[in-house]
Write a structure and sequence with these properties.
Chain B: One of its GO terms (biological process) is formation of translation preinitiation complex. The complex is a heterodimer. By secondary structure, chain A is of the alpha+beta class. Helices cover about 40% and strands about 15% of the residues of chain A. Chain B has a five-stranded antiparallel sheet. A five-stranded mixed sheet of chain B has the order 6-8-9-10-7. The chains are: A alpha+beta, B alpha+beta. Chains A and B meet through α1 and α2 of A and α3 of B.
Chain lengths: ~210, ~180
């Protein structure tokens, strides 16, 4: 069974780091060391850098460059100590790899998920009543509560800012106002036509202005 | 426990506690983690408002109103656990056990710690611990804790049985609570 001081001595840390840790191990933090310790977390994944290696994909692509520039001492094998030039070179290489490798990866991902759009859907309420739910308007710099007020006046109906199942803020207008609201968003708030979509029924999404 | 935790979805209410309750909680924490005593004034200052944030599954988090960083958590009226970020700052707050390298990736996915991972050459259990004790789970060759767990068996039992779950994984690196830096 190994002593716990092994844990600390195994870390190939920088002078400052190992200092603090060794003392901590010797007198178990009763004196000399100032707590709280300052812990560095990886700028990419948020874990302590020594644990980055356990997410292989992310590590190669993103954590590695961050570690190289911020705390290369955590991985003495990857970034040998005392060879500052080598580290820099490593980084350069990584940067180049990044530029090559990342772009094609990121773009399709972004299109699928992050492209902002305004979606107008109809949700059924009690009985034969319905409401129009507008999602994503806030992504175009529209203040939702102000917009809701405007909708109230314009359509002479109830309107409020509510949260949907995904915890996004949405505008809910009473009644089926999908077309009218789409036009209003375009004319009054200058939301580009091509980002406004209407849900015709549960599944089919159509452009509001084809 | 906190695998799917997120501050938007899991939190059901936040409320400041009475100062008398605050004193009680502080006393309980000091009793459980005596090594934190001298830092308690920094962590939960007497004059600051302490919030109890109630979450799913009867979990409540403690934090100071100004900073809103989760510091401790407990389940129902159970013992208080420090959060991992707090444990990283005060590594001596809990007794430690060490798992071998092969166990790390599973612990980081939320798996309970199996006995063989605690008895193999890379692992260590330097202190004798009782069942239900709260421990910091360290990892072979790593400086910081990988998780916080509760002993399902005593250390003696773990050595003897050497099979099955030895420590329940309560909170681990990369889980929802770890990713929640502030609760605002």
């Amino acid at each position: 069974m190994s002593d716990l001081s092994d844990i600390e001595s195994l870390d190939g840390g920088s002078a400052a780091h190992s200092d603090v840790e060794e003392q901590g191990a010797v007198d178990d933090g009763t004196a000399a060391v100032s707590y709280p310790l300052h812990v560095v977390y990886c700028g990419n994944c948020g874990l302590p850098p020594e644990y980055c290696e356990f997410d292989a994909k992310e590590f190669e692509a993103r954590c590695k460059p961050w570690i190289a520039s911020n705390c290369p001492w955590v991985y003495p094998d990857l970034f040998p100590k005392g060879s500052g030039g080598a580290v820099e070179e490593n980084m350069k290489q990584l940067d180049i790899q990044d530029a090559d490798g990342e772009e094609p990866k990121e773009k399709p991902g972004k299109k699928k998920k992050g492209d902002p759009e305004v979606l107008l859907a109809l949700s059924t309420k009690k009985g034969r009543k319905s409401a129009t739910v507008i999602t994503g308007a806030d992504l175009f710099g529209i203040k939702l509560d102000e917009a809701a007020k405007m909708f109230k006046k314009r359509f002479a109906c109830g309107c409020a800012v509510t949260k949907n199942a995904q915890q996004q803020d949405t505008i809910e207008v009473q009644g089926d106002q999908r077309r009218e609201a789409a036009e209003l968003l375009r004319d009054q708030y200058n939301v580009p036509e091509y980002v406004i979509f209407i849900m015709e029924d549960k599944k089919s999404k159509v452009r509001a202005f084809p | 426990m906190f695998k799917k935790f997120s501050s938007e979805v899991s939190v059901s209410s936040k409320a400041p506690v009475k100062s008398s309750v605050q004193r009680q909680m502080r006393a309980r924490i000091e009793e459980q983690m005596p090594s934190l005593n001298e830092y308690m004034d920094e962590l939960l200052p007497k004059k600051e408002k302490v919030l109890v944030v109630k979450c799913e599954e009867h979990v409540s988090l403690l934090c100071v109103e100004k900073k809103m960083e989760p510091l401790f958590f407990c389940v129902r009226d159970g013992p208080y656990f420090p959060t991992l970020r707090l444990l990283h700052m005060f590594p001596h707050a809990l007794p430690r056990v060490q798992v071998d390298r092969g166990a790390i990736k599973h612990v980081m996915k939320g798996a309970d710690i199996m006995c063989p991972g605690l008895t193999s050459p890379g692992a260590a259990m330097p202190v004798e611990l009782e069942q239900n004790a709260i421990v910091a789970v360290m990892a072979e060759g790593k400086q910081h804790a990988v998780g916080i767990g509760r002993m399902k068996m005593s250390t003696a039992q773990i050595r003897e049985v050497n099979k099955g779950v030895g420590i329940e994984n309560v909170h681990h690196l990369g889980d929802g609570l770890f990713k929640t830096i502030t609760l605002s």
